[in-house]
Amino acid sequence: MSVGVLGIKCSCWSEMAVVEPLDHGEIELAIWQTNKGTAGWRTRLRHIARILRHGDPYTDFIILDRERVEALSAAMFDALAEAER
Fold first, then answer.
1. pTM recorded for the entire structure
2. Which of 4, 54, 66, 68 has the fewest CB atoms lying closer than 10 Å?
3. Who's near 39: CB < 8 A, 6+ residues apart?
4. How distant, in Å, are the alpha carbons of 13, 15, 23, 33 from that of 36?
5. Nearest Cα to Cα of residue 19 among 9, 34, 53
6. Which of 36, 37, 39 is nearest to 58 (CA)?
């Protein structure tokens, strides 16, 4: 079964987790804020400064190797099992 990009909105609808499968069992996990408005000038300038200093404006995603994917998966299943008790 092929798995595509999965977007999961927070229960409060203010954030979203995006899971994207990569090669060799790795995934990219990103957390996004889902505001409906346009970013203000302060936020835009902060992103511009980060791009100039570091080359990447986003610090809200991580790449997990297969071992960490399995650990995250196990932790989520354990939390579900605990909640059902």
1. 0.55
2. 4
3. 47
4. 11, 11, 33, 9
5. 9
6. 39
Residue 72: pLDDT above 70? Answer: yes
DSSP string across 15-61: EEEEEEE-GGG-EEEEEEE--SSPPPHHHHHHHHHHHHHHS----SE
24-33 core/surface letters (b: 16 or more CB in 10 A; e: else)? eeebebbeee
Q: Given the structure tokens 């994917």, which residue do they identify?
A: 69
Arithmetic mean of pLDDT, 65-82: 84
For residue 33, what are the contacts with CB-CB under 8 A and spacing of at least 6?
14, 15, 16
